[in-house]
Amino acid sequence: MTRPAARPRPSILFVLTDDHAAHAISAYGSRVNSTPSIDRVGAEGARLDAMYCTNSICTPSRASILTGTYSHVNGACSIYSQFDYRVRTFPEVLQERGYRTALYGKWHLGTAEKATPRGFEDWKVFPDQGDYVDPVMYGPGGQERIRGYATDIITAQATSFLDELGADDPFCLLVHHKAPHRPWVPHPRHEHLYEVGTILEPETIGDDHEGRSDAVRQVRMTLDDLTEHDVKEPVPEELRGEERLRERSAWKYQRYMRDYLRTVQAVDDSVATLLDWLEEHDRAEDTIVVYTSDQGFFLGDHGWFDKRLMFDESLTMPFLVRWPGQIPAGTEVEAMATNVDIAATLLEACGVEPAALPAQQGRSLLPWLRGESVEDWPDAVYYRYWEHDEPAHHAPAHYGIRTRTHKLIHYYNDGLGSPGSSDAVWPAQWELYDLVADPAELTNVAEDPAYAGIRAELEAQLARLQADVGDAPYAGPDTPRLDWSV
Ligand SMILES: [Ca+2]
Questions:
Q1: Which domains does the chain have, with CATH numbers?
Q2: C-alpha 2 – ligand 1 centre gap (Å)
Q3: Domain Sulfatase N-terminal spans what residues (predicted)?
Q4: What is the tens place of the pLDDT at every residue in 99-151?
Q5: How far is the C-alpha of 77 from the C-alpha of 83, rounded, in Å?
Q6: How far is the CA of 66 from the centre of ligand 1 (A)?
Q7: What is the Å distance from ligand 1's center to 6 Cα?
Q8: What's the rounded Cα separation, in Å, for the pair 173 and 364?
Q9: Which of 105-109, 419-423, 438-442 has the highest mean pLDDT?
């Protein structure tokens, strides 16, 4: 077969999963599962080990990825908001530059007319979270129920789009899996994997949250908060009652993780199919393949499930990227980066000048991916979770800073709360973790006199970083609000 002439611009295959924690990917040293196809992306390219989201929840992270901006700029600060389309997205820019663009899967940036996907010649998305089995999807042609398993359906839509391309068409294809989001419904072909009783528990599963802020101690994200719907069967009679909490949590953990890991396995199958397609059609060499997730997830860590909080299991995003000839195989990037940097990175790789995305606040990671280093690269990341006391999880609003050695978090007690909040009031409090002495983040040293100097430095650094990105400190319930409306 004659090899086509080198194409002048790379294509992009961007695989985004929902709530897939890095510590459930074997390339990141998972102790609980194996993901050989996802691992391939990093083994043949780069693995980023310090990639963080700037607001650990679905809608905001997606908006930050697409626009290269923080939540307070793109307006998508919570799952109740949809982002401001005056802020352009990287697929819109690439479409204008002649790329063939498509999006399949989870959108979650609003379903009203003003928030339907833009910048894609073809798209099919779920309303809100969507269903794992026989999901409804809508697109430019309307809405339909599609028979089958969501992860496989999205993969088939993606390969159908690729099949229709001309041999040299540059493309930007976004494959946005629903998995492994709650309620974790696996495909039957994976029912032999990760059986109950075989899944290793994390070391911090018994964390009693002593010494943490009052706001954190009351979140409804403990393993025992998993519902019967989540674990697919009623709790046995003998495990009920306060005195059986530890055993019941372990019982729920096994069932939750069984299904979470099985849904991940279907994603791994999807990545295998997509990588195979690129090779079979001679598109592997000039296609940038990204595997990432909108945020991390607690996999029983600290006794929790879900995300939202700034602890590392939730804050960290997996990020694997392959670009043969440009990114040396086996590259490991330690530079601190965020989801805000992704758009700048992809646009630079495609030869697009940063001004094409005028609001974007990120920096291109391309030099790091090529094995170079950047002298003045930031050594800290800014984080803000805006939702306060949302009715299901009761996670508090907070902002903070993570450096290589420390993490400082301010739970400022947003007195106004989110829609439907319980109006619970906790004192505004701080947490400080020494990530060198205490990488598991078990000991809050915010009030420890030995850390007073470090805390003062971090508070000043946090204030500078917050101002640098154009955000402002919380100033009480009368602070001008972001638009919560859907
Ligand atoms: Ca998510």
A1: 11-187+257-379 (3.40.720.10), 381-468 (3.30.1120.10)
A2: 43
A3: 10-352
A4: 999 999 999 887 665 568 999 999 999 988 899 999 999 999 889 999 999 99
A5: 8
A6: 14
A7: 37
A8: 20
A9: 438-442
Distance 181 CA to ligand 1 centre (A): 7
Cα–Cα distance for residue pair 38/104, rounded to 1 Å: 19
Tell me the CA–centroid distance for residue 361 and ligand 1, in Å: 22
Contact yes or no for 293/21 (Cβ under 8 A): yes
Interval between CA 155 and ligand 1 midpoint (Å): 19
Distance in Å, CA 61 to ligand 1 centroid? 8
Position 372: which residue type? E
> What is the SS3 assignment for 429?
strand
For ligand 1, the distance from its centroid to the CA atom of residue 19, given in whole angstroms, is 4
Q: Angle formed by the axes of helices 36-43 and 245-280, to 10°?
A: 60
pLDDT, one tens digit per residue, over 329-376 is: 999 999 999 999 999 999 999 999 989 999 999 999 999 999 998 999
Average pLDDT, the chain: 93
Calculate how far, in angstroms, residue 109's C-alpha sits from the geometric centre of ligand 1. 12
The residue among 27, 93, 87 whose CA lies nearest residue 293 is 27
Distance 88 CA to ligand 1 centre (A): 22
Give the number of other CB atoms < 10 A from CB of residue 478.
8
Q: How far is the CA of 308 from the centre of ligand 1 (A)?
A: 10
Which are the contacts of 375, defined by CB distance < 8 A and separation ≥ 6? none
Q: How far is the CA of 124 from the centre of ligand 1 (A)?
A: 18
Question: Following DSSP, what letter does each residue of 343-406 receive, concatenated?
Answer: HHHHHHHTT--GGGSTT------HHHHTT---TT--SEEEEEE---S-TTT-PPPEEEEEESSE
- Do residues 212 and 431 make contact, with C-beta atoms less than 8 angstroms apart? yes
